[in-house]
Amino acid sequence: MIEIQDLTKVYGETAVVDSVSLTVPAGQICVVVGTSGSGKTTLMRMINRLVEPTSGQVLIDGQDTRAEPPHMLRRRIGYAIQGHGLFPHRTVAENIGTVPKLLGWDKARTDARIDELLTLFQLDPAEYRDRLPSELSGGQQQRVGVARALAAGPNILLMDEPFGALDPVIRAKAQDDLLAIQRRFETTVVLVTHDMEEAIHLGNKIAVMDAGKLLQYATPEEIIANPATEFVAELIGGDRSFRLLSLSKVVAFVEPGEAQGEPIDSGANLREAYAECLWSGREALPVTRDGEHIGRITLTELARHAARPQ
Ligand SMILES: Nc1ncnc2c1ncn2[C@@H]1O[C@H](COP(=O)(O)OP(=O)(O)OP(=O)(O)O)[C@@H](O)[C@H]1O
Prior knowledge:
alpha/beta, Rossmann fold, CBS-domain, 2 domains, four-stranded antiparallel beta sheet, 14 helices, 13 strands, binds adenosine-5'-triphosphate, AAA+_ATPase
């Protein structure tokens, strides 16, 4: 768990992070969003003390981060940045093994961990271990960057625009990989992005920053349904109803009964169901799970959900 308490950073006369408090429970993803210069990166870097706070404190699992030297703290907090930040003249294996080496792991343990991570990130160790970063695609470099951040099994991972340099298709894949890996290791993640779409997709909670202040810290559903300020509403963009629909699955809104035509899978989201109703001109769709009919979802129910702020 990360507890940020009344954290402030002042440069010159300006509080670029201004009395921010928030808690990230263990095993959850907190996404920090906001416009350029709003203080996201500074906030995140105060967690691993790459930036020293002017005032306030950060507790990790109840312990003040000032209780240990910054370099020791950073060995147990993974850190991944945009454009991967890999050492260009070190191989993939050497890059991933950086922190384990600092921690004095023996070679066998380090090698096993490197291979485990490469395999998890769908990079065949035999093929990729000895390559240099320049011999990888952008998406592969990014995966190695995240693998390096996870190498020593940190329970906290800080990520600064980790997918910023990737094209949209690879980006979606990279986000899904991150979710799978985060669930597997139960890592607590703080991720900075300026992309609200990404925040909604990845965040258990979203922290919205503007001019150093935390405007809202809430679940994606709450932020979409009840943006705290005009600025937050603007960041989310116009189509809040559709965003709300895409957050919920059909399975939660199935009712007993039949409907005509092509069925929709219970794992689809409400936005897909709504689009299907409108596209095929139907008032209801049959719903299946693993190919079995389990009921139907109606246009009335979909419209009600889209209209209702939660
Ligand atoms: N070392 C520094 N000295 C002085 N000002 C700084 C320093 N680091 C950051 N700032 C200023 O603090 C403000 C917040 O910067 P920060 O990098 O945290 O913003 P950000 O929200 O992450 O922006 P971006 O999305 O553009 O990366 C900016 O106005 C920046 O110019």
